[in-house]
Amino acid sequence: MNKPTTLYIIRHGKTMFNTIGRTQGWSDTPLTKEGEEVIHYLGLGLKEVDFKEAYSSDSGRAMQTARIILQEHQKGAAIPYGTDSRIREWCFGSLDGGYDGELWGVVPRILAFNNYEDMMTNRISYKELANAIIAADTANWAEPYEKIRERVWSGFEDMAHRREQNGGGNVMIVSHGLTISFLLSLIDTSLPMQIGLENGSVTKLTYENGQFTIDTVNDTQYIDNGRAISLER
């Protein structure tokens, strides 16, 4: 009998751009020293979870995060690990690499809101957000909503389905804040946009017969547990 299939979806560790308030998207910076430390704690907190396989996006910050976690895991060297470009962050086109204030300054105006807070209070849809990013992008690199939806859903669903077909169990996946939030909205349309997922937080999903169930969102207890383990050493 198959075990349940559970995805442990992790937002990558804190990066240089996260620290100075720049939009990353498909651009990339490495984890800071503090970011690495938190992910080491996360790895300690997850070290006894029986992961059957592990994945990350192909962005450097996600791969760096995955490697640190697997280094701390008691079976890390034996856990198959691969990358998948489908679970990358959204592409912000010409706004990639700019300060967050540029992205969250222009997008609300395009959507006829006074500011970011006004926009979030009115609970815009991810489709509206994607269309506004395309309108703001002067390089024509930003992705249409339909393309983001197809790649994000197929990426996570393929991983879950593959594990279910191979006996179930736990899968570790390192992805990105907006991508994880967007995936949750595809599972439960009543959820608000959750752009503020913490670096290193764990969002747990159960997958059975083609259906996802959301167990926990933005859980930082594994970091706390790992910090406690570190202090005991």
Automatic annotation (TrEMBL):
Active site (catalytic residues): 12 (tele-phosphohistidine intermediate), 89 (proton donor/acceptor)
CDD domains per record: HP_PGM_like
Entry coiled-coil feature ranges: none
One GO MF term: fructose-2,6-bisphosphate 2-phosphatase activity
Pfam families: His_Phos_1 (PF00300)
Binding-site list for substrate: 11-18, 61
Keyword Hydrolase belongs to the record: yes
TM stretches of this protein: none
A GO cellular component annotation in the UniProt record: cytosol
Keywords noted in UniProt: Hydrolase
Record-linked PANTHER family: FRUCTOSE-2,6-BISPHOSPHATASE TIGAR
Protein name: Phosphoglycerate mutase
Taxonomic lineage from the root: Bacteria, Bacillati, Bacillota, Bacilli, Lactobacillales
